[in-house]
Write a structure and sequence with these properties.
This protein has 281 residues and is mainly alpha-helical. Helix 3 packs across helix 14, helix 4 runs antiparallel to helix 11 and helix 11 packs antiparallel against helix 14. It has two domains: 59 residues; 210 residues, Orthogonal Bundle (MetI-like fold). The protein contains 14 helices and no strands.
């Protein structure tokens, strides 16, 4: 009986490992092919797939530059918007979540449920009204229209609330209040240091979401010099670039590499933050 149990356990473990390996391959191979094709010429790409890099990376970059594609400016624009959006999202989302979790007030349950409803509403359904609102405020063709609305990021508040509920120590907050600490002092100097894994995880999600945000930027930004990197890459689909597949892949790779680096550097925060947020006492 014991041997049968061990056999079933080993079999299930083997099946799980096989599935995980297949998922890793399915995830990594397309990204690897994208990076490889960024180093290959159009002729090499048309000849078929290859898993090994070539030597045309500089040539592809020169093609982009020669066609008026300002990759450095697009990169700088995306970096500014992504960093500013991340700071705004993390701070105000954690502050709002802290207020919901720590304070008892009338309508708190309704407010929490309303946030969940907002999370489930696609941005595409509200984009017309949002554009009109930004237009009346004079914020169209302005990065403020991409950054300031994230003060009310429902997804960030929901994540912060789920995380703080698992690690808030009410006795610690009460002790700080008895010592005369203000509410903002408690949040900044006690809760935020304890919530670093969750805040870092939220920051990574916010950065990636802002970095890849094409839809809102395409609607609100009109000046070419203000184009973010996804918008710059979008111009690669013009007629003049259709035969320059190597340059197209390079433009796409430039948008992907920062996200990969960010994940590699901060992956431990993602794991610890999600794990902590899933634990409830």
């Amino acid at each position: 009986m014991l041997n049968k149990y061990k056999f079933q356990t080993n079999l299930m473990r083997t099946v799980v490992y096989i599935v995980l390996v297949l998922l890793v391959i399915i995830t990594i191979v397309p990204i690897w092919l994208l990076l490889v094709n960024a180093t290959r010429s159009t002729t090499e790409i048309q000849q078929g797939l290859s898993m090994f890099p070539s030597t045309h990376l500089v040539d592809n970059y020169n093609i982009l530059i020669s066609k008026g594609i300002n990759i450095p400016r697009g990169f700088a624009n995306s970096l500014f918007v992504a960093v500013a959006s991340t700071i705004i999202t993390v701070y105000f989302s954690m502050l709002t979540a802290y207020g919901i979790v720590v304070y008892e007030f009338k309508g708190r349950r309704f407010f929490s449920n309303f946030i969940v409803v907002l999370v489930m509403i696609p941005m595409q359904l509200t984009i017309i009204g949002f554009f009109q609102y930004m237009s009346r405020l004079g914020l169209t063709d302005n990065y403020a229209s991409l950054i300031l609305p994230l003060i009310a990021n429902a997804g960030g508040v929901f994540f912060g609330k789920q995380y703080l509920e698992s690690m808030v120590i009410q006795d610690l907050i009460d002790a700080a209040r008895i010592d005369g600490a203000s509410e903002l002092h408690i949040f900044h100097n006690i809760m935020m240091p304890l919530a670093v894994p969750g805040a870092a995880t939220l920051g990574i999600f916010a950065f990636v979401g802002s970095w890849n945000n094409f839809f809102n930027a395409f609607i609100l930004i009109t000046s070419i010099e203000k184009y973010t990197l996804p918008m710059v890459v979008k111009t690669l689909r013009g007629d003049v670039y259709r035969t320059e597949y190597g340059a197209i892949y390079l433009g796409l790779a430039i948008t992907v590499v920062p996200v990969i680096i960010l994940y590699v550097v901060f992956s431990r925060y993602i794991i610890s933050g999600i794990a902590m947020g899933a634990i409830k006492e």
